[in-house]
């Protein structure tokens, strides 16, 4: 079980997160994470254009530069800036700097099961089960996103089509033994 104070590290994109408030500690109201993304964080979790249909996201920048791509434009945020992405708004983000890490607090509300999606992605990275660009295989994503419906969709494809694609991919993935959730064990827990 993820608890406040749990730390995850993704060696692929040099991203470390510390859970400040979890689904359990906030009674499902929100998930809050302190995040550090290494320099040149092109492949961080928000690198793909996506949206959360039922959840609002907030990024509070403490140091470094956050590039946020929303509504076809790019905005750069620095220390002291807060960015709020309303539910349903397509976006992507990354560390703008190729020399400095990005430190920010991330909040998503309501929490739903978002921490389990994050845990799965970080666990796959720890196991080396991600592609060169840092993402899980299509079948693994299909199994996970089919299981955690209404958490995340890719921008640019109609949601009903994505649901069908995820469902079909999930059927195949499950037959191949893929699981929707993977527990993070940390660097020494593998």
From TrEMBL:
Query: What Pfam families does the record point to?
Result: Cupin_2
Per the database record, which ranges form the Cupin type-2 domain? Answer: 46-104
User: What domain of life does the native source organism fall in?
Assistant: Bacteria
Transmembrane domains' residue ranges: none
Alphabetical list of InterPro entries matching this protein: Cupin_2, RmlC-like_jellyroll, RmlC_Cupin_sf
| Name recorded for this polypeptide | Cupin domain-containing protein
